Structure formats: structure tokens, C-alpha cells
# Entry
Amino acid sequence: MSKGKSLLFAVLFPVVYLMVQSTVSGIFGVVLGAIEGVRTAVSGGDVQDMSTNLAWQIAQMSSIITGVAGLVAMLVAVLWLKAERLKISEEFGLKQVDGVAVLLCLLLGLAANFLISGLMMLVPLPEDLVNQYNDLVGQSLVTGNPIVTVIVIGVLVPVVEEVVFRGMTMGTLRKGFGAGWAVVGSSLIFAIAHIIPLQIAFVLPVAFIIGFAYLWSRSLYGAIAVHIGFNIVSAISSAFVGEESLEGTASSSAPALQVALMVIVGGGICAACLVGLWMRSRAAKARELNAET
# Structure
């Protein structure tokens, strides 16, 4: 694949994904708005109250909206692969599964959450950026049914986003630019797609971690496992502990010992997992070369 075509498709896949999200959110908004409008007209309620109720309903259904958008985006990705006559199992490395590598990736994702959260706490941040992060990100994590939130944010979103950003985007970049630039390019695209400045900074390091995990685990299962491990920590703490659990994610107010432990222990586990994945990848390649000879 040429570099120009590779870059075009690498950007196109996330754009389509974001458009699907916006479209599904818009449809939900129109339907809920119509229902709330009829209810207000029948009851003779106030328009201001209608707007408030509509915003509350959309917030409560944010996880469901995200889940539906994710499933639609997954369908689009599968249809594209079918149209290109590409085998999903071969494109995403799903044929051979290294169970140890997947477990290392899951542990890597859990540790990465603590490491990056700790590092974010060390950086003095403007209050308006912190408030923007907590308001927008916290709304999607805390509102609605906590079980649904954990399932959607902790499991479904990682699966969908890894199909789009690692399976499709990184896979396409790899064909045009090679593995190293594919990790860099897909990580930058993944971070920028999160839009919120502080969230971009929070997501970019884990994007690189996921990229190398995908490369060294040689399967999309590895990338999904890292992403699930990373998201599940935030999803569970936010859904069952509450909105206050988000405050430490983007502030420097946490106790120094807690921050130090998060960075040191999380960083150590991340390093050990990445080294383990790299060694297993080298060993697998060596076995393949020996089998050929």
C-alpha cells in the first residue's frame, strides 16, 4: 500500500467512527427531545424545565448511547473489511492467541492507569482545564446505571476503539510506513480523537503503551486487554465510588505518598510487562525462523 493511501485511510477510519458517534447521539437527542416535548405539551410544563429534563435524560443514557454508537462503528469496520475481501482473523492477528501475553497486557493496562494518573497528579494544572476534564469526562463515567457504565466504558469501548485505532488505523499505517511509525501515528490520532486537551495528555502515553503491546503481543487481543485494564479501573471507581473519585485524576491534591506509590509501583509493573511482551515476541519470531529452516 502506498504511503499516501495508507495515511488517508488511517485518518478516515477514526473520522468515520467519530461521525457515527455524533450521528447516534443526534438521533437519541431528537427522539428524547420529541418525547419530552410531547410530555411537556400535554402536562403544560415549562420549556425551561423541558430543557433541563432533556439534558438529564441524555446524561443518564450517555453510556447506552456510547454503546450503541460503538456497535454501529464495529459493524461499519466489519463491512469495510468484507468489502476489501480481507480476513479479519489475519488482519487483527486473531488466529493464534498467546494467553500469557494477553494476561501481561491486562496487567499492563491496570498498572498504566495508576502510573499515568499519578504522573498527572504531579503536574500543576490550570483549574479551568481540570474542571473541564472532570465535567465532560466525569459525566460519561458517573451518570446512568453503574453496571451498564462498567460494561460499556470498561469493556465495549475498548473493543471498539482497538478495532478502529489499532486494528484499522495502525494496521493501515504499518502497511505504508512500517511498524515503528505505525505506533507513533496511530497513537497521535487516537489521542487527538479525544478532543479535550487534558484528556489528550492523559490518553497519549497509554496510546503508545497499547501500540507496543499490540506490536509485541502480535494480536489485537493484547491491545484490547491493555485498554480494558486501563478503562476498567476508572469505570469501576467512578461508577461505584462516585464523582469525587475523578478529582484526583486531574489534580495535584492527592497525598504525596499515594502519588509516589502510584508512579513507582505502576511504572515498575508497566516496565516489567513491556519487557515480558518484547521477550515473548522475540522468542516467537525465533521459533518461526527455526521452523522455516
Notes: The chain is about 85% helix and 0% strand. Residues 243-248 have pLDDT under 50 and may be disordered. The CA atoms of residues 35 and 54 lie 9 Å apart.
